[in-house]
Amino acid sequence: MSQDTSATPPGEKRRSILDGRDNVKKRRSIFFAFAFALTAAALPAAGAPDLHSPATGMVTFRGTEYFLRSTQGNVSDFTPRGQEDLSAFTDMLELNQYPAAHDHEALSRISGRIQAIAQGAKGTILQTISASASGQQPGEHFFSATLPTAHGTDFDAIRFVLVEKQGYGVFYTHRSYGESATASTSEWVKKNASDVQKQLLQFDAARMVSAVKNPTSPSAPASNTDLPAGTIKKGTLTSPLLMHDTMLGVAGQMGALGCSKVEDVTPYVVTPFAGAAGRRQWQEKWLVKGCGKEYPIDIDFKEDGAGGADWTIKK
What we know:
alpha+beta; Protein Transport Mog1p, Chain A; 2 domains; globular; disordered N terminus
């Protein structure tokens, strides 16, 4: 899949969500664009652990163990063994808590909003299911979609459910990379989408909530050997899908440097989170390969306090 190579001048700041103030085009994925906006205002009350390194806790989905890798506010990411690098995962489970959602109507609104965001990001909705609350059965919602990304193409399946009268979204993503990603995802969907839907609708969301709140078994940390000068660990503190927004600016920067094709990106953390939730700042160095060269790109990140984040590519 071709990259957006429109030039982004060094040092230019870009906002990652459209807030109506700056006419900035929305680039967020369906995961972060709405999930983080819903939770940001309630982070202190949520009580979720704040883990930013390989973490603990485990759930099983479709016969595969998924380990808790990070929690940022009310968003927790799980990946299988061998997929500790959240910038290069193939399969991911994500748990989003919605502090203000406590009934079926709230889940319905959340599901509708995220579907609209997916469609606005040129996603294709594949399946939707809505079960109204009745008797002892709480209502819940499900939809699946394919979505283009800066890396290739995602298949996303999302279930919105109440756990002890608290709203949660359980997100499953299968990601394909490269120019053949659309075709690869299409073939994968034909073989797997039906089973993913069945398994996600039967998935024990309460177990996943418990794995975040009460982690037990530690997962192995990623290797930090051979780090570039000035960095502290391999990986990124952005969510995997917030990275999609930043990648568009990186591709533009590469175009300004005379290279129109991004072949590979390896992110590294320069400084950890600093500041209160919703106003955190951090720095990263992304090593970008293209046109037979490797380009180090330094990026400053800063949350804006309104559910978004700014990034600045340094000169």
